[in-house]
Batch of 3 targets.
Target 1
Amino acid sequence: MTNTPDKAQRTYLKDYTPPDYLIPKIELDFDLGEKETRVRTQLWITRNGNHSRPLILNGEKLELASVALDGKVLDPQQWQRDDVTLTLLAVPARFTLDLETVISPITNTELSGLYASADTLCTQCEPEGFRRITYFLDRPDVLSVYRVTLRADQSRYPVLLANGNRVSSDKNGGRHHVIWEDPYPKPCYLFALVAGQLQFIEDEFTTQSGRKVQLRVYARERDLPQCDHAMTALREAMAWDEKTYNREYDLDHYNIVAVDDFNMGAMENKGLNVFNTRYVLALPATATDQDYRSVSDVIGHEYFHNWSGNRVTLRDWFQLSLKEGFTVFREQQFSAAHGSAGVKRIEDANLVRTQQFREDAGPMAHPIRPDSFVEINNFYTLTIYIKGAEVVRMLNRLVGNRAFVRGCNRYFEHHDGQAVTTDDFVQAIAQASGHDLTQFYRWYEQSGTPRLSSHGQFDAKLRRYHLRLKQVDCDLTQAHPALQMPIVTALFDRQGNPLTTRCDGGDEAGHQHTLNLTGAEQEFVFDDVDTPPVPSLLRGFSAPVILDTDHDDADLAVLMGHDNDPFNRWDAGQRLARQQILAWLDDAEDRALNESFAAAFSQTLEGDFNDRAFQALALKLPDENYLGEFIEVIDPEAIHQARRSVAKALVSRYQKAFLAHYHALKTPGPCRLDAASAGSRALRNTCLTYLMILEEESSFERALMQLKGADNMTDTLAALAALADQAHPARDEALAYFLERWREYPLVMDKWLRVQAISRCEDTVQRIAHLTEHECYQNDNPNKVHALIGAFAHGNPLRFHQPDGAGYHLVTEQLLATDPKNPQLAARLASAFNLWRRFEPGRRELMHQALERIRRHKHLSRDVSEITDRALADQKYQG
Ligand code: PHE
Ligand code: ZN
């Protein structure tokens, strides 16, 4: 493939025009084979409006066998074709088009379109994979009703699935066919088929209106015993969406298929979700508690898309966050309802702060509704997904949950069967709630993380507390106007007791108030305040912003010990910890623990929490990448050392308490999966990890014992990870033991690769280089590449950025080897160099060279070029 000039073209939102033609109906007939698949397509096409423009269909990597218009075969003068289109210059206002295309699943390494995963054939069409199956108007605002015939060899492909309802089947000799019809018009990105030797588990769900839905999870036979949790999660998700949004499922079948080779987590194809096995399979022995939660989350996510994405779909790809941000928000609500809501919120907010803020601070920064892109595949980003979800969460906060749900229902009902925009969504909420959301809409148009500062003043005489909030980056220009956002706030006295106050002249006394910040600078007044308060601001991380407060250490200690908002309680501890680490970073000589921090830490460690998952989170120090955001010029090694020294000082001082927990938290009997047991495991493993830092022989023995004795993957993996981080013979013993036990389980081997990829040991780079040759590693499988190279590049700052440049070199090599096969996968590695300008000169120069080397590479994909071009052009940090 060559870089033709039009490949580098940029697509702009402002250029959107409705399609020139519509395709209300399509029939597809597949003759399936892994080397060659023949696709016969019949399209019912109508002209959209009054014009004489040509019909330009999208198509890539297709062999075209024939074209017929209204049944008459066209000769080649009547159409034109290039690498990416098929053009018919003159067509009637209404006609049928018959096409025959030939494709080759087995050579499809991009995993987009129809491809082979082991001996299963499956499809991935979002965002632009359908054009690799047949010529079509491959854009989300062209909605069609599908009828699909699948033909194949019966013994090789006994299971034949497509979207919708199965209407008939037949067999003949060794061959068979199945016909599927999907009554709901859909864009082609939601088309799917699967063919293979799959088994299934089955269940049934009766919807609130009495429709019986047959539920199936398909997997390879050996994986079938691991599918029950996914099925349970599906049933929970269906019930939850009925209860919470009054949305029910609309087909007779809901099929989920798990495949090993998949670029993303999963895909919401109508009635036929295709999943990465990673988000389906789970048994205690093979999946961690975190994996269990991720499986339910992703199962829920794809199910919720049936309304937020499928029934109401996107006008164009600039609207991606309309379905993704909204669906992630729904997924988060679902998840919070089935576990510890506080812990869930901390995890989600932490991800925004540590990962999305980084994206927004670098060259790939974009609004949740971007204005332009080169390669849409590069925009499946944290910004679109999780900042998008935060924006929906703020809407919910500002108008209140009841009005929000009314607005969502209005949106679903008014736009059912349509392809719409983020503006339509916000309008529906505005209309149902009576709120004017014009200012709020700027969140969709503006990139970057807003910065706020707060300043409080107590007036004892008037029993009043004045809180001034300032949007720091805001100016009077169009580029940074003030945003509207909810700042959820409560006051405490200095003993940590919640205060009841009235806010802004209102007569309703309460503890917590939602401040509606709209101005660049705004003052809020709290009445009935009898004592100098400690404010708890931005509770629940009520807006995705950076907030600088005037809290001192003592204030933070009060909040860390007493705040009744889990996020802020956790965050107070994180801020103390961060200050401690940054202080040691500045001063390597005078390294004494700050006593307020140490006291607060020991309270968290020794306190009696009923939520141990919370306690475990509260004991973790902020991660190294996040700490880097508070430093002008990043030196990853110095950050690592400072953080590790703080951890070491803490575990030296409180070793007894860590040990006592470790022993007390061991639960007798076989592993239980309830939230409380998972919380105990999390806390116990946090203790194990801290204790390892002391590098005592007894710690290695303890971890080895845990590794070999555990009956669940959470404990096994925690022990393995702790040992893999130590240059000690126990490391190799542990890795060999684990390999021997789990080598037949690809998902478990991903964990084995990952712990080695993020090991802080000095030989990590060499070891990874060896592992790329290991039988368990395949450089064309996305899970493997993420586990080894992705985890290293994004999750091991110490070794990726080691000063000799060996880490950069390794990632560059792997990226360039991956790019010709799977550009999307390569592009996700390329983003590891995004923040190159933030680093100290030595590393900055090496990262710059790596980027230049990638950019100069011949035949670089559009995906990788867009990332590296933006990184190299980034001016943000130039002095
Ligand atoms: N739409 C999928 C989701 O649920 C993600 C995805 C995007 C999968 C592109 C494959 C390709 O988030
Ligand atoms: Zn999604």
Note: The pocket of phenylalanine (ligand 1) is lined by residues 124, 126, 263-264, 266-268, 301-302, 305, 324, 380 (CB under 6 Å).
Target 2
Amino acid sequence: MADGCGKAKIGPSILNSDLSNLASECQRMVDSGADYLHLDVMDGQFVPNLTFGHPVVKCLRPKLQNVFFDMHMMVAAPEQWIEGMQAAGADQYTFHQEATDDPKTCIRKIKEAGMKAGIGIKPNTPVNVLDPFVDLVDMVLIMTVEPGFGGQKFMGDMMPKIQYLREHFGTIDIEVDGGVGPSTIQQCADAGANMIVSGSAVIGSDNPRETMNYMRNVVEEAIQKSQLER
Ligand code: DX5
Ligand code: ZN
């Protein structure tokens, strides 16, 4: 099982930040109390947008030495970037179930490379496709927007997927990504998400520390409540 599983963690997504100042934007998030960084990799095939790949991660790593990098790999054939990302200094490799015919091999290769493994699904994918993989990974990711762009509207109808995972798989780390901010965090927390990706709401906040603290507290309270009820 993952280290510290079930803990409330906030991972800002820097997708909607000033990408010409990527390292300083990441540092700003870390200085504001980010628990990890969620780095969105897009290949123009799996999603209709392009961002960056392992060469950029390699340049970020020495500038952000002790920060946990969760790579959200919105790419086709995710196996192909495992080695590159590991060499660049990624900590976790989160790929999409829809992107490969063989998620088990992908998970095995990620682990053999010494990284943590995450598996995610898009909004139209039913949650039970994850059943065979949940026990093999460190984290599952439920998308609450169509992957590809920051700043989209949160899809509250994805919450039953999170509830299903929390009910069936206990303390597994469950990450939620897309449209999450102070106005939608309560739903995510109540459903059972504990790893919270937030892009535009944190990047655009006048006080990112306060925004992240608020969301972390909401999630921590929900975790405590669920533990009391158990
Ligand atoms: C969307 C990305 C998200 C996105 C989140 O495809 O995976 O990580 O940047 O940004 P917001 O919080 O603005 O939806
Ligand atoms: Zn993402």
Note: The CA atoms of residues 74 and 92 lie 14 Å apart.
Target 3
Amino acid sequence: MSEHAAPREAPRTASGPAPWTARVLTLFPEMFPGPLGLSLAGKALERGIWALDVLDIRDFARDKHRAVDDAPFGGGAGMVMRPDVLDAALVAAKARVAKGSGRATAPVIYLSPRGRLLDRALARELARGPGAILLCGRYEGVDERVLEAHGIAELSIGDYVLSGGEPAALVLIDAVVRLLPGVMGNHESPAEESFERGLLEYPHYTRPAEWQGRKVPEVLVSGHHEKVRKWRQAQAERITEQRRPDLWARYVKDRDDEGPDR
Ligand code: 9D3
């Protein structure tokens, strides 16, 4: 008898193509959708624009203690997640992708402090695909062989230490879902956001027009839409140049490559 269920061929359904699907492998399934359920992403989840499928890694443990981890070969502190347990969970997750989407299987991503840094280009790339299988690690990490065997890419959300991959998976899902068609209102299309153009945001103001002696910049109350647009652009550039020389260098280069006469 096979240790795992065999992946089946994808049946086409009358319900149309499956939505973008996050399939999360975790030891803490109750952490999902978590804060995402309260946000824009939660609304989109209710509306079926994306789907969330959470698999509890412990369900794939075979022994009587349902052990998912073991001591590291070579010694040292902490525990390592077992490759056989993770493999069973990954095989199940891949089979569910194939069944649901009628498409190529989604990329498998291991959230890991050793990974490539998440950026908006990767979020966009993932949003164009059928979804993602997200492996969340706990303890010291996962057995290296399972990463090789499943061709898994590693992804970090920044150079600081988390207690596990789950918060990083929530960040990744949030960043991708808001790029899916129909998630954001028209007034706030992702392409119009400063960051999508490679700049930080300009400053925002609302009523009252004067607060604790501080006035809203005159141009914003003037009603000159073209002047407002130019002021905001200049502010976004000033703030980006001051705070993020890395973003500024890329922005200047992209701008000069695209249109030297603008
Ligand atoms: C105490 C263990 N650390 C030794 C220096 C290694 C380590 C293992 C596992 C550190 C953190 C973690 C848990 N982190 C993640 O799973 C994680 C993560 C992160 O910590 N920072 C940024 N992005 C990510 S994505 C997943």
Note: Residues 111-113, 137, 140-141, 156-158, 160-162, 164-165, 168 surround 9D3 (CB under 6 Å).
